[in-house]
Each structure stands twice: as C-alpha cells, then as structure tokens.
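Good morning C.,

I know you're traveling, so I'll keep this short. The sequence:
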Amino acid sequence: MTEPNGSAPTHDESHGGALGSRLNWLRAAVLGANDGVVSTAGLVVGVAGATDDRSTLLTAGLAGLLAGSMSMAAGEYVSVSTQRDSEKAAIAMEKRELKEQPAAELEELTDLLEERGLSREVAREAAEQLTERDALRAHARVELGIDPDDLTNPWHAAWASFLAFTAGALLPLLAIVLPPSAWRLPVTVGSVLVALALTGYSSARMGSAAVRPAVWRNVGGGALAMAVTYAAGSLLGAAGV
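The tokens, ready to paste straight into the viewer:
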C-alpha cells in the first residue's frame, strides 16, 4: 500500500527493548507519583486531624515530601546498581566463556536460535554470522537478554523516582496549605482522590489491564489511608498529644 502522495509507505512502529524500556520508565514514573500522593496525603491529613495550624501542616508536608523522595531515590539507586552489577558480571562471564569455549558457545547460540523457531540449518548459519560480527553482543542479547550498549543506569532511575515522588507529593501539600482553614480537608481529599483515579487509569492502560478495578483499588487504598491517619490524628489531638 502506497501513501496518498505516491511515495513508499513508512513504518515507524517501535520494536524491541527500546519500547519496553520506555514503557517501564513511564510505569515507574506513574507509580512513583502515586506513592508521593498517597504517602504525603496520609501524612498531612493525619496532622490536620490534630491541628489546623498552617505552619505545622507545611512543616509536616515538606518533611514527608523530602523524606519520601530521598528514600525513593536511594532505594531505586541501590536496586538498579545491584541489577547493573549483575548484568556486568554476566557479560564478563560470557566473555570469558567465549574465549575459553568458543565451539561450545557457538553450539549454545545455535540451540537458542533454534528454540526461537528457526530450523537447525538456518539457526546454525545465523549463529555463525552473529558470532563473526560480534560474538559477545550476540550472546548477551540472545542468551542473557541484555543489551551491552544500554545497561540500566542507577542515576537515571534515582532521579526519575525522586522527581516522580516529588511531583505527586506536591499536590496534597499545596492542597492542605493554600485554601482557607475550613476548605483544607475537603479540597485535599477531593484533589487526592481525583489524582489517584488518574494514576490508576494510567497504570492500567499502560499494563493493558482492566481500568475500572485498577481505579477503584487506587482510590480505595488512598481513601483508606487518609481515613486511618485522620482518625489517628484526631484522637491524638483530642488527647492533647
């Protein structure tokens, strides 16, 4: 099929690891923002149950935002660093095996390609061509599922988590301190529930899952968190703690 202007058709669909990587980062950003909304909302609503002092609410919200975002960033950095170290170790082992047992590694690559649906003859020819071009890269991608040119970056992951959590946490923080005293709680609860509905919808669509259950779980969990912390704050406030 040709384009309306008579030119050859174009095909811009993304394939492979690049698309999967982008989807994973986007999903992590949505979930990080969701964590920022829920945890900070629970904190400021709980404090609001004990006091309506704006400076106290602001201090508690900022402390929660900073603690949560730093914790998320540090946790993501450690986790992804461990993953990167494992990837580098696996590539180093594969490099050593290619040097010490080239024939066995060629046979292994042939078997892997055959398992993917190629005939034995075609798999052998493909394995030989891939080995001649770049044996290490071929084994890393086919055997290990790793792209040596695109290893996970812990700093990217840490910054992404930090920014996503901060963006999510800003919503309940601003909602609890900007409105007049009488409107703080309803504005915060309403805006948080709307935000949770949106993040639930987004995560479901990215994962090709049913939207309604995901939205209800997200909204229900956030509402429960705020109800519990508000009740706790109210009890502590009434007790004069």
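Safe travels,
E.
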